[in-house]
User: Fold this.
Amino acid sequence: MTKDFDLTRLLAERGAERYDLHTKHLNHQLPRMLHTIGFDRVYERAEGAYFWDADGNDYLDMLAGFGVMGLGRHHPVVRKALHDVLDASLADLTRFDCQPLPGLLAEKLLAHSPHLDRVFFGNSGTEAVETALKFARYATGRPRILYCSHAFHGLTTGSLSVNGEDGFRDGFAPLLPDTAVEMGDLDALERELKRGDVAGFVIEPIQGKGVYAPPPGFLRGAQELLRRHKSLLIVDEVQTGLGRTGDFYAYQHEDGVEPDLICVAKALSGGYVPVGATVGRDWIFKKVYSSMDRVLVHSASFGSNAQAMAAGLAVLSVIEDEQIVANARVTGDLLRTRLAALVDRYELLHEVRGRGLMIGIEFGRPTSIKLRGRWTMLQAARKGLFAQMVVVPLLQKHRILTQVSGDHLEVIKLIPPLTIGEREVERFVDAFTAVMDDAHDGGGLMWDFGRTLVKQAVANR
Ligand SMILES: Cc1ncc(COP(=O)(O)O)c(C=O)c1O
Assistant:
């Protein structure tokens, strides 16, 4: 008999080493960054939209693990499904049989995009995008993919090729043949399509970096152009999908849009089991898998595993049973309206945008001389420092976790669990108001911290 492995004991004995272990064996910049901004906390327990530290303080999660915790943490229905699937001791991943759960999850997913027919299951968002890129190239026989400036579709090499930020791309070239177009610029899109070598155009219906939505009509206009030029519309719903924006898919906000391929991941996992799905048209799949010889031409060892499928099925059931999409719309409208009402009150607050529970709060140059000098000092050091200056007291003083929405952006993004309600809206708006009051006071700890950030930004150059 082997020595018993006891996870509970391991965590009890060595959990306190967590930051040292990361510094020693993992990406050492993470603990360094967390320490710098005072985020190096120890959270002990989590449920729904909250986590707790060892002293029992509650923290409101407005980040949802970059969106994977769409239903919050440890949703009881998802948790039970995972216990059940383990208890069932299924003959999973034999690879030479057909399991029921992938078929059932595909059926349930496809019910939300009735014009599509088939699903490929992988293990992450970036893999869902890679699959779409490969399928588009194979189906059209063309090499080039178009994407939007500032886009984010994942960080593996294919997805990186359609990333709209140099910061992510630099040093990793050569990537796939690609061309960026400005979101909203149909003329630029058409110019590229006319070259006849474009397999597809990939777009987030609301960009995760900066929370920018295309102008109304752009998705439909793009779709018409793509059809005319026999290229595919690939909609990346990895972050926006499964109710986040107040529709099941964010593309559904605009009438008449029917993507050829949709990428899903994050929240489908229930926050437990990595999963990605590429949903698409029958003819595309039939072309990729055109003969028995090609049955494994695109596959993944862990794709369709029972735990991921069980989590996905449970998530979709909860989304239906608990009216999650409607809650995202109603609660999102409330939160956005309450925040937008503050724009006139605070000169540093420029815009509140987004849809459902995907909200961007943008800061900008103040009008008063008193604040302008401070703002300019921050901007000269690095763009995005003011947003960081807001994120830090939100956590340190008010125990609310948020993030700056991308490098060099003065935007905070809110993507909380879709289960939050009025209580969480009140707590966030109260805290945000207090932080804005501090910032507009002009003195105080907040701007001292700003000066610390400036020193670090300059030292890091
Ligand atoms: C729109 C979008 N696509 C793709 C990805 C990549 O997903 P993953 O991190 O699971 O690879 C992300 C992740 O943030 C995303 O927001």
